[in-house]
């Protein structure tokens, strides 16, 4: 028998409470499903009993503190480790039960299999955001954590919408106008006449607008 001791209720619930439902619904909409499924396989192929014990985090328990330290080191790696996530067909349940699926869930499942091509501007802005955060905090955030932060409830709805558009590069500035005949002049900054005005230019780089004053007050 083996007992896993952890302060993560998420991990315990994934492998116990939520597992039957996720398997019945074909893992549709489950974040980190490929890792959870591989973990379930590793546990099920054992013949001995497996149990879990939850403990309070940051309570001085040596094993838990060391686990947190290793998790932090892993999160700060510049590239992810290569993991063996192979699951034999005998253990790899496919599809969802008709008795457990709904129309909304089926639609979400279809959406998950549609190829997704990220926008070039979005990918570029995510990279800039990641490395800027790393430079300031010495921690490398994932794309998921950045998007989660952009939707944080402490930000007003207007601010969340502004950040979303900025990350996707959908504000009507700079390059947006270069493809519209007779409007090409709008791509220039109206203050310093810089070509292909960008949100970065507006917020931090333009020497003629009030951004330097605003940032000094913010600091």
Shape: extended
Give the oligomer, counting copies of the same chain as homo and different chains as hetero.
Answer: single chain
Radius of gyration: 24 Å
Distance from N terminus to C terminus (CA atoms, Å) equals 56 Å
Integer average pLDDT = 89
Quantity of strands, as a count = 2
Largest sheet: 2 strands, parallel
Poorly predicted runs are: none
> Which fold does the CATH topology of the largest domain refer to?
Nucleotidyltransferase, domain 5
Q: Which structural class should the secondary elements be placed in?
A: mainly alpha
SSE order in H/E notation?
A: EHHHEHHHHHHHH
Tally of alpha and pi helices: 11
What is the name of the CATH class of the largest domain?
Answer: Alpha Beta
The fraction of residues in strands falls at under 5%
CATH architecture of the largest domain: 2-Layer Sandwich
In spatial order, strands of the major sheet run: 1-2
Helix content: 40-55%
Region (Disordered): 54-79
Protein name: RNase H type-1 domain-containing protein
GO molecular function: nucleic acid binding; RNA-DNA hybrid ribonuclease activity
Organism: Suillus subaureus
């Amino acid at each position: 028998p083996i007992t896993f001791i952890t302060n993560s209720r998420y991990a315990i619930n994934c492998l116990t409470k939520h597992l039957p439902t996720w398997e019945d619904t074909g893992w549709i909409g489950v974040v980190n499903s490929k890792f959870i499924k591989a973990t379930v396989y590793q546990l099920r192929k054992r013949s001995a009993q497996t149990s879990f014990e939850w403990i309070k985090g940051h309570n001085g328990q040596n094993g838990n503190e060391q686990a947190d330290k290793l998790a932090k080191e892993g999160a700060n790696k510049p590239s992810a480790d290569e993991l063996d996530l192979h699951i034999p067909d005998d253990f790899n349940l496919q599809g969802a039960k008709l008795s457990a699926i709904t129309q909304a869930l089926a639609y979400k499942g279809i959406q998950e299999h549609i190829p997704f091509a990220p926008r070039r501007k979005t990918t570029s802005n995510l990279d800039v955001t990641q490395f800027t955060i790393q430079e300031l905090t010495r921690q490398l955030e994932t794309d998921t954590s950045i998007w989660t932060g952009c939707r944080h409830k402490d930000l007003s709805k207007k601010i969340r919408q502004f950040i979303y558009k900025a990350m996707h590069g959908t504000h009507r500035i700079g390059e947006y106008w270069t493809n519209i005949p007779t409007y090409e002049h709008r791509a220039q900054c109206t203050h310093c006449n810089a070509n292909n005005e960008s949100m970065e230019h507006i917020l931090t780089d333009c020497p003629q607008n009030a951004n330097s004053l605003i940032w000094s007050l913010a600091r």
